[in-house]
Amino acid sequence: MPVNSILTGFGSPTWNLARTACEKDDTSLIAQALSAVSSQDDLESLHRYSCRHAIDNNSANVLTYLIEHGANVQALLPMVVAGSGHTSKAILEILLANGWDINWRDASCSDPNCEPFMWHVIDDYDMVAWCLEHGASVFPKDQEPLRDDTITLSQRCCRQILERAAAKGTVATFELLRSEGAQLGWRPLHLAVENATLWPRDRGKEGADDEKQTGTESDHEKHEGTKSENARKYAERLAMIRHLIDVVGLDVNALDQPVGSRFGGRNGTPICYIAAQYGLGTNTRELTWLLLDRGADPNPGLEMAKRVEHEGFEEDVEAWKAKHRSGTQSGASSQCNVQ
Which of 143, 164, 176, 318 has the fewest CB atoms within 10 Å, i.e. is most exposed? Predict the structure, then answer.
């Protein structure tokens, strides 16, 4: 941007006018904003800024106007198109009609823009189905084939779509993508387990919900709404974990990288991803017992728990072992009723 640019500082009148135009979907205002710039650099900057806000506000008229007046949408960053997660299909259709590549990703970076658009809407089944109907591929563009003996930098930065679905999507979304030939990758079960640790139904210390409410009725309603949403996400992850083990047939003791590799952010077998989440103050006993009931070897997790001083995980394993012994001695089933 030139030193004497009228766009210097996002609080300038031209920026504000463009933002207001996008918020109101007003083409007369965006026309005024564009007419206020004279240099090509300024115009391109304003185009990028306005396209982002038009998409985020689902302003179809302004977006169309911008494109008609030179805005290039062919290689928009995936996160710009995904926006806050509410981009409409009408906006996407405008982009596709004007050269946007739904499979484009920034393969040169390691941030979320290295994953295509569909990866960013994985929690919306209808949007994923729409993407597939409109040319989205389940294979990351320009990525090397998966191998058993290595994981490339590109594959570490841009996970397989089924890994994203296991972590954030529903079973229906996972199966839809699998029916399109999507590959499992190294960590679908691991990432499903990791995300399940974020949403236990009884977050925090036991009895915390029984403490006297000091906020307003509106605050209480928001609190209850958050609890309900957390419970939904937790149940969704547990359903995914059961599906991955019981239906897809994934190995509950599978490693998350080739033997001998030491990639950051990888903890080992799926149960290690519970042991590693030691600072969240969440109760993961049900999750731990589910994996143990399915044959998970607790020892790698116990080693991890010792390293990070996750005493709660160790207690959960010992409780499972005690119940298992008790059930065996009494002739009962060795399952711990965490089905």
Answer: 318
